[in-house]
Amino acid sequence: MSTYAIGDLQGCHDEFAVLLERIAFDPRRDRLWLVGDLVNRGPGSLDCLRAVKALGDSARVVLGNHDLHLLAAAWADAPLKRSDTLQPILEADDRDELLDWLRRQPLLVHDAALDAAMVHAGLPPHWSLKQARDYADEVEAVLRGDAVGAFLASMYGNSPARWTDDLEGIERLRVIVNTFTRMRFIAADGTLDFAAKEGLDSAPAGFAPWFTYPRHDDPRIVFGHWAALQGKTPDARVRALALDTGCVWGGELTAVDLESAERYVEPAHPRR
User: Fold this and answer.
1) Of the candidates 73, 61, 75, 9, which has an alpha carbon nearest to the alpha carbon of residue 31?
2) Rounded to two decimals, what is the model's pTM?
């Protein structure tokens, strides 16, 4: 049995299918971790969603910002952008089944035996693993409940940009979502920056990549979201595994065996 973690699919279904063949994935024996952003921008968003859902308990998924955007379009009529490729999902005969499955996926997965935690964007240094689990639970309960539409309609926004323990209501939930699904650079006081999206040298003054700060606990953190890192963190001592290698942008789709650390890649296929 092997556990493979795979980077952001973003609708790259053909590459996903070939990568599963490359690692000889067997759902009866092996397990997949998928770091979120299953959908959007790539041509096979509907196929990706169907394929991952069909894997059942052999796949563990965390929600990414593009997955939440899909849920917001479905439950809160959030407008789609010209570059979105979500309409086939919204028009599919099985859309309700797919979307209900998606909204029940977590923001955080932790496996003590693997010494690994999976999130989409990252885990801030001022949250312990237990705190992160508790905060993720708050958002997950809302997503799975009857108030999902009202929450998704108010989810968007960059404010507040810093977590404080006294936050309440939608502001509290918004900071939790932004931290788990949008974080790249963070200041020492916990303030998030949402403007810089390029490589490590694009850090604004006073900010640094979230994974460069010391942590009180030390799980290996598996994450995606940051394609500009090209699957690399700056120091081998950093206990973080970057998996978004920009398949949807013409890069490659990456899988890593979490036990052996062996890496597998499938280059992006040519698109019209």
Assistant:
1) 61
2) 0.96
